[in-house]
Amino acid sequence: MNGIGVKELAFVGYPVTDFAKARKFYGEILGLKETSAFEHEGELGWLEYDVAGQTLALARASEKWSPNPNGGGACLEVADLDKALAHLRANGVTIAMDIQDYPVCRLAVICDPDGNTLALHQRKPNHPDAH
């Protein structure tokens, strides 16, 4: 075995403080499909969304894991970055970094209701992973 034996990415997780706002943002505004919801002591404590076969998990924030605009973040591939940002602006979503243009891609950064950042990415036709 090399290293610690990593088999795959289990999920990407974000701490949230308000599940109603999080559901609206991730489910309605971003359009992700909710796949699981788990309660702890009678309260919602964990939500999972499918992102092209990978799991984006939202968990109740705590003192040890709280929302942070400067933390790590997921990067979501979108078909049309301009349309995506127009939709997000129309829904009052904070744009933390407007579109940056790079040789093989375009990228912008948005904030969820708790201030966690998500990057939006659009590959250009010459991107190494373009299909």
3D architecture notes:
By secondary structure, this protein is of the alpha/beta class. It is built from two helices and eight strands; from the N terminus they run βαββββαβββ. The chain has a four-stranded mixed β-sheet with strand order 1-4-3-2, with helices on one face. It has a four-stranded mixed β-sheet with strand order 5-8-7-6, with helices on one face. A hairpin with a 3-residue loop joins strand 6 (95-101) and strand 7 (105-111). The N and C termini lie far apart (32 Å).
Summarize this entry quickly.
16% of the residues lie in helices and 40% in strands. It is α/β, with parallel strands linked by helices and 131 residues long.
Biggest sheet layout: 4 strands, mixed
Rounded mean pLDDT is: 91
Strand content is: 35-45%
> Alpha-carbon distance between the termini?
32 Å
Quaternary form: single chain
Shape: globular
Structural class call reads alpha/beta
Radius of gyration: 16 Å
Helix percent band: 10-25%
The count of helical stretches stands at 2
Low-confidence segments: none
For the biggest β-sheet, the strand order reads: 1-4-3-2
Number of strands: 8
Order of helices and strands: EHEEEEHEEE
